[in-house]
Write a structure and sequence with these properties.
There is one protein chain. With 274 residues, this protein is an alpha/beta fold. It has two domains: 7-15 and 48-96 and 174-249, 3-Layer(aba) Sandwich (Rossmann fold); 107-172. The chain is built from nine helices and nine strands. It has helices spanning 32-40, 73-81, 113-123, 128-142, 157-169, 187-202, 214-220, 238-256, 264-269, and strands at 7-23, 42-58, 62-66, 88-93, 97-100, 175-179, 206-210, 223-228, 231-236. Helix 3 (113-123) crosses helix 5 and helix 5 (157-169) runs parallel beside helix 6.
Length: 274
């Protein structure tokens, strides 16, 4: 349950601009001189990944963020976690935050699973004593005990991801940012992930969950933001916002569908007979 009056995340008028280089194309560079200039010079083009985004997340709240690819979800997560800074606006964070953006990204391929638990756990902010206290639970959760002392370069992609998630799942931050983490493992492991996230929420953790898995968002979150073209399109109860997103997706698909060819029988009716 959220503590009354407590806010863990405050986002005020946040925008993020990127500058993308636009090189002169070969088709337009018809002379040797223009091709040379095109290789040496490029024109910066502004791209706004987020525009004037504002919201707050209360203590113990579970917030889902959904939207199409390119809507600004991952940019927002990077801003919240401090990976990058906003072009304008302000983000205020209260408490200890951990971001699970790329599962297993801190692993060293030559180290064993056990060694990588210590390495990755330290990168994520855990102390060695804390890791030692939790390592048996981490190994059991990941289901890789048989291979825990094998270099992770020999792991399958599923084992690699399960161990990475298991480490992050045993963090105990005030705020946990999650990005598509339930895409790891099989259905049984995904159920364990959901159970662990619910357990963290039960202990009063604030969770921000970004995902394309709408059923998982609806199951985990009490509130959902819908992003579109870098702006907040909706903010409300999961069922309502998810239904709005599905309707928009259907409308867009219908608008982009190619027109059906004219029926031959109808065309024949317009032909004049002698």
């Amino acid at each position: 349950m959220a503590a009354a009056g407590m806010t863990d995340l405050q986002v005020d008028g946040v925008s993020k601009r990127y500058k993308v280089s636009e090189t002169i194309s070969e088709a337009s560079a018809r002379s040797v001189l223009r091709r040379t200039i095109g290789r040496l010079r490029s024109r910066p083009v502004e791209f706004w990944a987020l525009r004037d985004v504002s919201f707050q997340v209360g203590r113990g709240e579970t917030l889902g963020i959904i939207g199409d690819n390119g809507a600004g979800k991952s940019t927002l997560l990077k801003l919240l976690s401090g990976v990058t800074s906003p072009t304008s606006g302000r983000i205020a964070v209260r408490g200890r935050m951990s971001a699970l953006i790329e599962v297993g990204s801190g692993f060293h391929p030559e180290l064993t699973g056990r060694e990588n638990v210590y390495l990755s756990g330290s990168i994520l902010g855990m102390r060695r004593r804390e890791i030692t206290q939790k390592i048996e639970r981490i190994i059991d959760f990941a289901g890789v005990r048989r291979f825990i002392d094998t270099p992770v370069k020999r792991y399958s992609s599923g084992m690699y991801l399960r161990l990475g998630f298991s480490i992050a799942a045993h963090l105990e931050p005030d705020i946990l940012l999650l990005d598509e983490v339930l895409a790891v493992g099989d259905a049984e492991f995904q159920a364990k992930c959901l159970e662990r996230i619910n357990e963290l929420h039960g202990h009063g953790r604030t969770i921000v969950f970004i995902s394309h898995d709408l059923s998982a968002v609806e199951h985990l979150c009490r509130r959902v933001l819908l992003l579109s073209h870098g702006r907040i399109l909706a903010d409300g109860p999961p069922r309502d916002v998810i239904e709005m997103y599905r309707n928009l997706t259907r409308e867009r698909a219908n608008a982009e569908a190619p027109a059906a060819p004219a029926d031959r029988a109808d065309v024949s009716l317009t032909v004049a007979h002698p």
